[in-house]
Amino acid sequence: TARNLLLLPGDGIGPEAMAEVRKIIAYMNAELGAGFTTDEGLVGGSAYDAHGAAISEGDMEKALAADAVLFGAVGGPKWDDVPYEVRPEAGLLRLRKDLQLFANLRPAICYPALANASSLKPELVEGLDILIVRELTGGVYFGEPKEIIDLGNGQKRGIDTQVYDTYEIERIAGVAFELARTRNNRVCSMEKRNVMKSGVLWNQVVTETHKRAYSDVKLEHMLADAGGMQLVRAPKQFDVIVTDNLFGDMLSDVAAMLTGSLGMLPSASLGAPDIKGRRKALYEPVHGSAPDIAGKGIANPIAMIASFAMCLRYSFNMIAEADNLEKAIAEVLDSGVRTGDIMAEGCRQVGTVEMGDAILAAFKKL
Ligand code: NAI
Ligand code: MG
């Protein structure tokens, strides 16, 4: 079976990190018979420079045809003043929208070697492995009306509208329950049913979805504000957290800070399965284009490599390979090899390429 990947390295450190993934793909093709075919495209500022758009129609077509998209990062000071419609982020938003990527998966994993470097107490985060499933295409970021109206008396009114339909909640809950079954079989759903009608519906639909098809999974409900507190107080109580777009945005950033550097954090965005059960999917590091370190060869490629591990897991069901790649990352960190962002006393500081090489070497041995 062909496995078609579209690589969109983007701007800044995006291409530097993507180069390390390319090496892993080449190895998997040559030695493991993985059968990946790769195509490349431009996104963000680099697409604007070449085509005057944040992503060209041709590259959008490639993205729609691919089994999975690997996305680096977009943006940078060079494009701060380009028109709003073609700003670098527009490329990512277009991809999310046209591929209908409604499920955003943000793991918060604390690698043992980094537990002590955490700004929180090591005993709270050691062994942490949670997955936040955030609804990505609905809720208050997209609901109508969405506007600023002039009230005429020197006052204006800013309006955003939280809207969720049953099917939107059902499908994100389904993703969370399915994922929980491949992990520790627990889901915590977070909303604010005490003050929001959409929260009442969210709670009802998650409960019904659970009863109908996933009663083997343990389901818990938590108010989202209490959930934020619990994430910081005792994060290891969670396995899978499912929540809406706004709360998911905030809670996943909170969870990110339990794990160390931005340079460590992968993500996946999944669409609905087609008749053959295949989902559109995009995998990207949580970090941006890091213009402050771009071109210096010092960026941490782990977030990008871990995003590729998610791709192996969720798009191609290559579970053993995904496990091994994640294990390779952990082993390299254990061995004391570090990029600057995660550097600690007694460790050996390396650049992007050396970190990528070390992970590939560890991966080859597994
Ligand atoms: P950023 O994530 O690019 O950088 C924040 C800080 O973390 C910087 O000091 C950077 O050097 C460091 N950092 C990030 N990734 C790193 C890595 N892999 N290794 C080592 N250090 C790393 O966020 P910032 O500075 O707010 O935004 C920079 C540009 O990126 C902006 O143009 C922004 O719009 C864009 N951006 C793009 C995103 C995307 O493509 N999905 C997401 C966030 C920001
Ligand atoms: Mg955010």
UniProtKB/TrEMBL annotation:
| Entry keyword set | Amino-acid biosynthesis, Branched-chain amino acid biosynthesis, Cytoplasm, Leucine biosynthesis, Magnesium, Manganese, Metal-binding, NAD, Oxidoreductase
Question: Can you quote the record's cofactor note?
Answer: Binds 1 Mg(2+) or Mn(2+) ion per subunit.
Q: Report the EC code(s) recorded for this entry.
A: 1.1.1.85
Q: In which pathway does it act?
A: Amino-acid biosynthesis; L-leucine biosynthesis; L-leucine from 3-methyl-2-oxobutanoate: step 3/4
Q: Where is this site: Important for catalysis?
A: Y141, K192
Catalysed reaction(s) here are: (2R,3S)-3-isopropylmalate + NAD(+) = 4-methyl-2-oxopentanoate + CO2 + NADH
Identify the residues that the record assigns to the Isopropylmalate dehydrogenase-like domain, covering every copy.
Answer: 4-359
Cofactor(s) the record lists = Mn(2+); Mg(2+)
Provide one Gene Ontology biological process annotation: L-leucine biosynthetic process
* InterPro entries the record matches: IsoCit/isopropylmalate_DH_CS (IPR019818), IsoPropMal-DH-like_dom (IPR024084), Isopropylmalate_DH (IPR004429)
Where is this chain's protein located in or outside the cell? Cytoplasm
The answer on whether this UniProt entry bears the keyword Repressor reads: no
The answer to keyword Transcription applying to this record is no
Gene Ontology molecular function, alphabetical: 3-isopropylmalate dehydrogenase activity; magnesium ion binding; NAD binding
Binding, NAD(+): 76-89, 288-300
What are the annotated GO cellular component locations?
A: cytosol
Which residues are recorded as binding Mg(2+)?
Answer: D225, D249, D253
Kindly give the Pfam families that the UniProt entry links to this protein.
Iso_dh
**Residues the record lists as binding substrate:** R96, R106, R134, D225
Q: Function, please?
A: Catalyzes the oxidation of 3-carboxy-2-hydroxy-4-methylpentanoate (3-isopropylmalate) to 3-carboxy-4-methyl-2-oxopentanoate. The product decarboxylates to 4-methyl-2 oxopentanoate.
Indicate the family of this protein: Belongs to the isocitrate and isopropylmalate dehydrogenases family. LeuB type 1 subfamily.
Q: Which PANTHER family match?
A: 3-ISOPROPYLMALATE DEHYDROGENASE (PTHR42979:SF1)
Q: What name does this protein carry?
A: 3-isopropylmalate dehydrogenase
